[in-house]
Amino acid sequence: MKSIFIAGISGSIGQQALEVLKKEWFKDNFKIVGGSVYKSWDKLKEAINKYSLKSVGIVESNENISKTFNGCRVFTGVDAVERSMEFCNPDYSLIATSGFSGVQNTLKAIDVSQRVCLANKESIVCGGNYVLDYAAKLKREIIPIDSEHSAIFQLLMGETSTPEKIILTASGGSLRDYPVEALENVSVDEVLNHPVWSMGKRITVDSASMVNKSLELFEAYYLFKIKNIDVAINRNSRIHSMVQFSDGVIKMHYGLADMKIPIAFSISYPERNFVFDKPDFFSENIHFEKVDFDRYPSLKLAYSILGDAPLQNAFNAADEIAVDSFLKGSIKFADIYRTIYKTVNEIQKQFLFSKSLKFHNIDDILKVDKISRNIAKKYIMEVIE
Fold first, then answer.
1. Which of 98, 146, 362, 369 is packed most tightly, with the most Cβ within 10 A?
2. Annotated binding site for NADPH, which residues?
3. Domains contained in the chain, CATH given
4. Which pTM was predicted?
5. Alpha-carbon distances, residue 62 vs 38, 58, 59, 325, 353 (angstroms)
6. Which residues belong to the annotated binding site?
């Protein structure tokens, strides 16, 4: 029986991973030994009691938490996730933490686990080549969980030919049918009303702006070492991605829009042991639309910086700051793109040497992220004033 640690156990992906691990084959082959949360101590206590966890981490807490709870070692503070992961020394680590903080979670997972089931796209977006090079050096497996990258990963299984093109699919998000001129003043509730997927708040906002697809563009470039990447809108999210080969053949990954499917595959790979509902493909049309860059300017910007690790890092940092401000009602939806654009341009001025620069250490990754966040915060303060 293999041990597994879930970083971000209380979040959307973490909770769905727990559902997967309850299923017959999974509960017979895996034991959850640890997990982490950002600040939800109640949910963490619940997980400790339910799964008899060996070690847990909580990053931020207002409570006076002891070092043990019900026989479980408890780590607190900014490095709590990494320390609890190291304490557990799991066979597999599933990284479901959101945002830039996941970079260091992933690096620790590579240190201690043979397989990293990766749902934190920022690990590759912000670190560029660094995280994947580090995993290769230690001979660790990284299996992507994002539905698009899981799809591409599966489509390339058994292939010896490199595809000419990757085609990422997108739902178009909650605002896909709004007039472009109306996007400036949409409400938070409108943005969070996703037509297909059930996700966390940040990723739902990012879906509406296609920042999420921008991050997936960066991630696909590093994971599959291909720069020729298109994006197509598939409204019902039945086609999760495609690969096109030199003979014109296009392979498509078809399936229901449910994150438990790629989560399960990342754990059971190379086998398929997850039993789930089957789509009725006779009753659904497969239809694709081109992306309108006037509606999704963030994606256009993303293409212009593809392969430039510091600028991709800045892109993500600015979005994290801007989305948080939008969700708090401090800025407008359209200000998210403006914040990203401003930040990327400022970082480009400061790092003129950075074209296709490779990150060689975590300190440089952290430095660019910190500078980018300060630029984004300063710009947002100007917008608010």
1. 146
2. 11-13, 39, 120, 122, 200
3. 2-144 (3.40.50.720), 151-256+279-384 (1.10.1740.10)
4. 0.92
5. 12, 11, 10, 23, 43
6. 11-13, 39, 120-122, 146-148, 171, 194, 200, 207, 212-213, 216
